[in-house]
Description:
Low-confidence stretches of chain B: none
Shape of chain B: globular
CATH architecture of the largest domain in chain A: Orthogonal Bundle
Number of helices of chain A: 17
CATH superfamily of the largest domain in chain A: Cytochrome-c3 Hydrogenase, chain B
CATH architecture of chain B: 2-Layer Sandwich
Largest interface: A-B, 49 and 45 residues
Largest sheet of chain A: 3 strands, antiparallel
CATH class of the largest domain in chain A: Mainly Alpha
Distance between the termini of chain B: 37 Å
Strand content of chain B: 25-35%
Helix content of chain B: 10-25%
Strand order of the largest sheet of chain A: 3-4-5
CATH class of chain B: Alpha Beta
Strand order of the largest sheet of chain B: 1-2-3-6-5-4
Number of domains of chain B: 1
Number of strands of chain A: 8
Mean pLDDT of chain B: 89
Oligomer: heterodimer
Structural class of chain A: mainly alpha
Mean pLDDT of chain A: 88
Order of helices and strands of chain A: EEEEEHHHHHHHHHHHHHEEEHHHH
Radius of gyration of chain B: 18 Å
Helix content of chain A: 40-55%
Number of strands of chain B: 8
Shape of chain A: globular
CATH topology of chain B: Beta Polymerase, domain 2
Largest sheet of chain B: 6 strands, mixed
Number of domains of chain A: 2
Low-confidence stretches of chain A: 1-30
Structural class of chain B: alpha/beta
Amino acid sequence: MPVAMINKTNISDDNMRGTSGNIGQTFGTATEVTDQKDYSILNLGPTHPATHGIFQNVLTMDGEVIVKAVPTIGYIHRAFEKLAERRPYNQITPITDRLNYCSSPINNMGWHMTVEKLIGCDVPKRAQYLRVIIMELSRIADHIVCDTVIAVDTGAMTGFLYLFQWREKIYEIFEEICGARLTINIGRIGGMERDFNDKAWDKLRAFMKEFPKALHEFDKLVTRNRIFVDRTVNAGPITAERALEFSFTGPNLRAAGVDYDVRVATPYSSYQDFEFDIPVGTKGDTYDRYMVRMEEMWQSMRIIEQAIKNIPDGKIHADVPEFYLPDKEDVYSKMEALIYHFKIVMGETDVPKGEVYHAVEGGNGELGFYLISDGGRTPYRLHMRRPCFIYYQAYPSMIEGGMLSDAILTMSSMNVIAGELDA
Amino acid sequence: MHHEIHPNASAAATELHDAVKEALTKAIGEGLVRSQIDYDMPVFILDKNKVHDGLSFLKNDPSMKFGFLTTMCGIHFPDNKGEEFALMYQLHSLEKNHRIRIKTFMSEKDLVMPTITDIWLAADWMERETFDFYGFKFAGHPDLRRILNMDEMNYHPLRKEYALEDASRDDKQDKYFGR
């Protein structure tokens, strides 16, 4: 528990100030601690194996207890919002891949749906179901990363190794669908670029059959494990009220007990057709965040099962030829197709004027795209609501007063992804 | 009062727009400059000096209950003389599942805005990001420093005057592409 009295108004401690090597940022507001204790400063990150990404926190430590934490972010900032102002709409999709790269298909779909909303196009039901399958698979992949890494941080390497190969299986399904694995640029504005082939369906069915066994096994290894429970219960808790003040979304908000899920609140891509539950926690601590993600994987399996069972036949993209590449044989034999091919490749497709916001439930919460179009070939302004960026600011207040080892667990259980944090 | 409705706006959006408009007019009067509906999202353009009051009212009023700050960002319209900069706030009422957008326009000569960190803790980094990229000054913000760019940077990169292409490149001009 915090033992030091902190005077937040005084910004004078030179020990806390400095520059962080080549990018030259100044550390955060220093805190003068007003008692007689001699605190030590611990620089956690930016590159530290336990932070799983490029995050820096300058910690003021009283023994093992964190008195004050000052985060510095921006180490992999790539100016996506500026880049988007120069790029045609279809060329922005690969940028979105690099936000939360653990579940990049959700980002792709979120972006496609934003543009579809702007141009007013109705995506055929089959494409919507294909999208749901892809998005839920990537949610499972995202949660596998997060939950297994929480286990690793408590010292349980075995569960990580058992479950992580199933992420590989998901990537193999993606590979069969679109040829890429991690940052996959899947789908097109208006639908999908192609249907699943037979191999993809086979791999998907095999996954649906065998993954539950693996997840059960992981569950048995970790969830009731004495060491794991001792380490994670009460580590980095946050109340529902505070989580809402900090605009938490996604599993982190649900772990605190608020049942907000974009898939249910504002359904997109036919999520209203599916039956699934929203798991919630009570204390918002590391154990709750872990449990919410575990249950969400089961719910995602439920959704995929329903999607496979009920998927309708039909077209896989809307009739918007200016946004999906025509068949190659048509390009060589038909004038229209050749023109569209050229316009798409050169990025010369104009979209109507307008202003839209569209949000999807990403792996980490509400991923929103606020798009202003002035009618040209590129957005006038694109703002991305990145859930990581918004909830990571609560991190210092969640770890202050706790042990250093809890801080590591809190970070991995919040699933802060540097790509999304820094955009 | 100027008033614009998107042709596809649903009845629910229109109803929400009318209810919020009435309440905002009561709360801040002339502070509500105009309102519109953009693709199902009611949008309220407020006077710069009334934004803090307006947002505080929308969060705390029992009939409004917009308790959740979804996001905020800056926008630059260099050709819109006298109102070159805009701020966008997006609110969400999780109880009623209503979303609205608040906007305010201001001159590039006066980019000082009252902070809303006293209303939502989440506004802290959002305002820092907006300051970093556009140069808005949020009066009363506890720690207004750059957040994603380095501190030594001496400009605000998302402003439209900073072209993304290298200025020395002359092979990428629009005229070569028939634009």
